[in-house]
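[job 0417] fold request received: tRNA N6-adenosine threonylcarbamoyltransferase
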Amino acid sequence: MRVLGIETSCDETGVAIFDTERGLVADALYSQIAMHADYGGVVPELASRDHTRKLLPLIQEVLDQANLERRDLDGIAYTAGPGLVGALMVGATTAHGLARALGIPVLGVHHMEGHLLAPMLESEPPAFPFVALLVSGGHTQLVEVRGLGKYRLLGESVDDAAGEAFDKAAKMLGLDYPGGPNVARLAERGDSTRFRFPRPMTDRPGLDFSFSGLKTHTLTTLRKLQSAGQLDEQGKADIARAFEDAVVDTLTIKCRRALDQTGLKRLVIAGGVSANTRLRERLSGEAEKRGARVFYPRGRFCTDNGAMIAYVGAQRLLAGERDDSVMKALPRWSLEGLQPPRTPND
Ligand code: ATP
Ligand code: MG
Ligand code: FE
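[job 0417] inference complete; emitting structure tokens
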């Protein structure tokens, strides 16, 4: 079965084709980052308009890549939420229009289920069950995954997501949006012993996170250096390093707890922050110590992409699930409410 996947939940237009027999056969991405950079963050109205401009050309591009015609497609999957409602509507309307014209099934996919299962696109995918750390721009969650659509939330951020904290810290340090990769780059030159930032909520049991305090801590440290006349490039790099170390350490402590609590030996990390090198190294080291293994997507599939949506859509459409008569665009949608594929006989 050949499934076209469409991702338009935020500032990336992603399109891909997943073939249930051959795997991923085409993948294209257009990032709006440069357009939003001038505003220091994503402007929803501009995002929707740009998806409208880029989506059809990208669909043609993946068909060309795979040497296929539209009529060779067997199904279409699109991100139905969570995300920016206007941006989601572009993907949803295009997917439904195209599916109707081609007479093939269409399915709305959960964006975070896409991130969660993105490591399945790699050559050595994790087997179920596993613990997943979802760390992106809008989410920080620990999830116990028993199978497709079998998700139990173990813990999540009570305020900012880890990616959001990276983006805000970047802004304070005068770095461009999206801040994660830029903070990480600056941190490489930082001295890890100069400042020690708090590891929020690690001194009490539980698997929830909080990252908004780190933001305040970053600002206070910046101001102190500034008033002492020491806010030079080195000072900023030292702050970036302290910030990154605090986030990585906090995430690592909670992952360790989640593995202990569930007794599972496989850890998946996915979402934009899973591209962070220091986080990957720390988690791999920790896992090795306890005979566990870490899985993550290739860098390109850590952030938003069409491949993860095509993959999830293909698994569910193949099982017979479809929602041809309901066009979905859900700004808020909980991952835990998902179910295994609804087959026509259910
Ligand atoms: P969500 O998936 O929760 O709806 P999103 O789609 O905006 O949010 P992603 O595209 O998965 O999020 O990830 C983007 C986030 O990842 C940004 O906050 C960005 O700063 C962060 N990020 C990307 N690369 C890195 C990195 N190397 N280190 C830290 N953070 C990173
Ligand atoms: Mg993005
Ligand atoms: Fe995302």
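[job 0417] notes: DSSP finds ten helices and ten strands in the chain. The chain has two domains: 2-117+301-337, 129-296.
[job 0417] exit 0
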